[in-house]
Amino acid sequence: MKGTALFVVLLLTLFTVRPVSPQQLTAGQAKDHEGETATVCGMVANEHTATSSRGQPTFINLDAPYPNQVFTILVWGEDRRNMGALPQTYARICVRGHITDYRGVPEIVLRSKLQLQP
Questions:
Q1: Is residue 66 part of a domain?
Q2: Could you tell me which residues come within 8 angstroms of residue 63 by beta carbon, excluding any fewer than 6 positions away?
Q3: Tally of domains in the chain
Q4: Calpha distance 97→19 (Å, rounded)
Q5: pTM for the whole thing?
Q6: CATH at 65
Q7: Which range of residues forms the domain containing residue 37?
């Protein structure tokens, strides 16, 4: 009987455990998760494309504009043409990727529009 009870408990566990969803963070929480892959959400505060810089990077700053940005989404010029329209200022967005630190500000490099979530 013990074996049957254990088997039933295992079956119930298998059918009631939900898969773990990807980690979702606020822009402010991202700094504590550098080196991890996660989804970071925030409000677009401003966007700037450095057209005269090597690689023509576009910086999308969340929750506060540069130079006080809380989190940055970086889109290199070569990837931008694959993105279509980028999020507008005051839009709430989420981006999934590997969180790194650039000069004290956490960022994710956006290479595909599949990384963006409304």
A1: yes
A2: 27, 28, 42, 43, 45, 69, 70, 71
A3: 1
A4: 19
A5: 0.80
A6: 2.40.50.140
A7: 21-117
